[in-house]
Amino acid sequence: MEEALLKVSGVSLNFGGIRALTDVSFDVRKGEVFSIIGPNGAGKTSMLNCISGRYRPSAGTITFKGRDITRLKPNKRADLGIGRTFQNLALFGHMSVLDNIMVGRHHLLKNNFITGSIHWLTGARTEELENRREIEQIIDFLEIQHVRKATAGTLSYGLRKRVELARAVALKPDLILLDEPMAGMNLEEKEDMARYILDLNEEWGITVVMIEHDMGVVMDISNRVMVLDFGKKLAAGTPEEVLANEHVKRAYLGEVDEVPPGETQVA
């Protein structure tokens, strides 16, 4: 896991007079689970948006597989193998689970209006069957066979999270960006999601960049962790190194310096 799949160098992001990110640099190695943590408003989702192309950094560069993608549009980044889920679910609520997942395969389709009408000559039919076969594998993997024909908007929150993950996986990404994949879930749902993420990483070979507030999950499944605070990189390292960092304890975990005997802590 020494090869850098993603490299973020000196990225800053401004919204008018507001600085969301300031000179943030890090790399994500091929084959690892890399988590980004920090308080609300620390710039975590802004960073994912810069990587996925939703935002364009005010300064700095982002490279993926050795290619500068800083100015590429989101669909071009998807073509290169970057998938993502969102903090606020972005499913098509009126569509079926199967159709939502099929959307994730759209950019992989080679046929167009002309070739689609003469698929017996171009292999479009074979292509469609192969796409459906791979989607069925994803449905089986995420254990959502029982809702494959259900309307996405009628599902429970936990199941909708799984469907959104399925759509991101359908893109066949080398790197997947997960924005709070376990938010709003109960303990059992979190355990299932953690298992899916680990299996995607270990068995499917997908590198993971994840934002998550559940520190137990982060420390259990991450290879490395980066901490953001007020848009700046506060610390990075293994989960053990980050937990032991005094700046992290004060800024993120809420720990305070010990108060000398006879003195009181000012709130």
Automatic annotation (TrEMBL):
Alphabetical list of Pfam families matching this protein: ABC_tran, BCA_ABC_TP_C
PROSITE patterns attached to this UniProt entry: ABC_TRANSPORTER_2
Claim: Ribosomal protein is one of the keywords in the record: no
SMART domains: AAA
MF annotations from Gene Ontology: ATP binding
Organism whose genome encodes this protein: Lacibacterium aquatile
Domain ABC transporter: 6-255
Key words, A-Z: ATP-binding, Nucleotide-binding, Transport
UniProt superkingdom: Bacteria
Protein name: ABC transporter ATP-binding protein
